[in-house]
Design a protein that fits this description.
This protein is α/β, with parallel strands linked by helices. It has twelve helices and 23 strands. It folds into three domains: 169 residues, FAD/NAD(P)-binding domain; 149 residues, 2-Layer Sandwich (D-Amino Acid Oxidase, Chain A, domain 2), CATH 3.30.9; 73 residues. The longest helix is centred in the first third of the chain and has 20 residues. Bound molecules: flavin-adenine dinucleotide (FAD). It comes from Streptomyces showdoensis.
């Protein structure tokens, strides 16, 4: 099992040898592609600029496992979200990624929105989602007693779920690495010297040169910049910021479903949704920016969210805010993904994965491997992937601190370090010794929830840091 974070890159998987495929970008999409490639006897590298997997857009989204009911019918995104949603729901059951199938209500707040609901139901049908149903104002109030005044009706979309966005890429990366993929972190690719017939591409990274026969661009916001490194200029990524508010666990009782707005031109709009960690999310905004690093929150953005949240669920505004965050969607001006294979270059771009990439990730992995095979990559026979069971971060499933038998076997699971999130020393120890260990306290939080609760590490920060430093020494 190879995960590297420093030092010169190994010169291919053997002396003088090149990788068969290198996937650049270890977000949820790149990790899913690497995992899919791991089914074959290929030499595969997954190369990431930052120190961890899932550090880009993948760590800061709304965490909805979509059904794809509202995608553009006939688009590649519609197909891959539908397939990906089913695949991820099944994968989550197999590997322990927390998913809660709470269902969604698309709430209409005026006559125009109410009139749009039948059209959205028809669109859902065209997208193969046959389970939607209209909900009248009175029933809506029984389903969601805390909804603000003025809701005229809704479209119920069963099967929309909430999922853990942090465990998902980590599960893919863990399984890929255990199945033979080399993961190189802290390894930005700065230049590409495209290969010719019979000669591999040479990727010039900050940690040396990596040679590879086939190349996949899964660079998220930087997919256009990476394309430029191989001489392709097919689209431009404009970051579309989404700011979100995370409300304290006491707010969880206020909402039962994902409360969606009727979508507008700038995307899916502002929603209120439970999280698998037992909080409530309000967001995201949709702001087109120039800066691909602008993941800060703004007073105006948060005020606008509060104003909209106050209409949807007035009591939410009385609850404590645990955290705010922002993520950037990779918008490209197209209403679809920007996926293109360039067989002559032995190169595939998986770009423009805007607001549904978490859901579609497993289907994107399959689709990309199909494109690589069409471009000439010989896959050979399929073999089983190494099994993975991920630690549970979800409130709806058993957590170690409540598991008496487990604590009896190993008292470290009875020793709570982070009291807000009830994270034990055993879980922190396990994360630090895992296949893809965290490189930072934030990485540890995404693996355990430690420091992620209402005190944001004020109480447990020092103790968690000591464990982190001891475990990474
Ligand atoms: C506010 C918001 C809400 C969202 N809500 C949802 C939702 O509810 N459900 C859903 O399914 N999806 C949602 N999404 C979309 C989803 O988060 C994205 O589609 C997905 O995370 C994109 O993953 P990615 O792997 O393409 O990109 P990223 O996660 O950004 O990964 C790309 C990686 O490439 C690396 N990289 C870039 N350039 C280089 C280089 N030269 N060398 C090496 N590495 C490089 C980066 O460091 C980064 O880690 C949302 C997105 C946002 C922003």
């Amino acid at each position: 099992m190879t995960v590297t974070r420093r030092g010169a890159l190994p010169d291919g998987p053997g002396p003088g040898a090149a990788y068969d495929v290198t996937v650049v970008g270890a977000g949820v999409v790149g990790c899913a592609i690497a995992r899919e490639l791991a089914r074959y006897s290929l030499r595969v590298a997954l190369v990431e600029a930052s120190g961890d997997v899932g550090e880009g857009s993948s760590k800061a989204n709304t965490a909805i496992l979509h059904t794809g009911f509202d995608a553009v019918p006939g688009s590649l995104e519609a197909r891959l979200v539908r397939e990906g949603g089913r695949l991820l729901a099944a994968y989550a059951r197999e590997t322990g990624i927390p998913v809660e199938p709470v269902g969604a209500l698309l709430v209409a707040w005026d006559e125009e929105q109410l009139a749009a609901l039948p059209r959205l139901a028809a669109k859902a049908e065209r997208n193969g989602h046959h389970g939607t149903r209209p909900v009248g104002a009175a029933e809506l109030r029984t389903l969601e007693p805390h909804l603000g005044p003025g809701a005229l009706g809704a479209l119920a979309v069963p099967d929309e779920s909430v999922v853990c966005p942090w465990t998902t890429p980590l599960a893919y990366a863990t399984q890929a690495v255990r199945s033979g993929v080399d993961l190189h972190l802290d390894c930005p690719v700065e230049k590409v010297r495209p290969g010719g017939p019979g000669t591999p591409h040479r990727l010039i990274t900050r940690r040396g040169v990596l040679r590879t026969r086939y190349l996949v661009n899964a660079c998220g916001l930087y997919a256009d910049a990476f394309d430029a490194l191989v001489g392709r200029y097919d689209f431009t990524v404009t970051p579309r910021r989404g700011q979100l508010l995370v409300f304290d666990k006491l707010a969880r009782g206020l909402v039962r479903h994902i409360l969606l707005p009727v979508p507008g031109v700038l995307g899916k709009g502002v929603l209120v949704a439970p999280t698998v960690y037992g909080n409530v999310l309000l967001g995201p905004t949709a702001e087109d920016l120039d800066d691909k690093t602008a993941t800060g929150s703004t007073a105006e953005g948060l005020a606008a969210l509060r104003a909209q949240g106050g209409r949807i669920l007035p009591a939410l505004l009385d609850e404590e805010v645990t955290a705010v965050y922002a993520g950037l969607r990779a918008a490209t001006g197209a209403e679809d993904y920007r996926i293109a294979a360039h067989p002559g270059l032995r190169y595939v771009t998986v770009g423009g994965i805007r607001s549904t990439g978490l859901t579609a990730s497993l289907a994107l992995g399959r689709h990309t491997v199909g494109l690589l095979a069409d471009a000439g990559l010989e896959l050979g026979p399929e073999r089983p992937l190494a099994p993975v069971t991920m630690p549970n971060l979800g409130e709806a499933f058993p957590r170690p601190y409540r598991d008496a038998a487990r604590i009896a076997r190993d008292p470290a699971y009875g020793e709570i370090v982070c009291h807000c999130e009830r994270v034990t020393r055993g879980e922190i120890r396990d994360a630090l010794a895992s296949t893809v260990p965290p490189a930072s306290l934030d990485g540890l939080r995404r693996r355990t929830r430690a420091r992620g609760g209402r005190c944001q590490g004020f109480s447990c920060g020092a103790a968690v840091r000591v464990l982190f430093e001891e475990g990474t020494r």
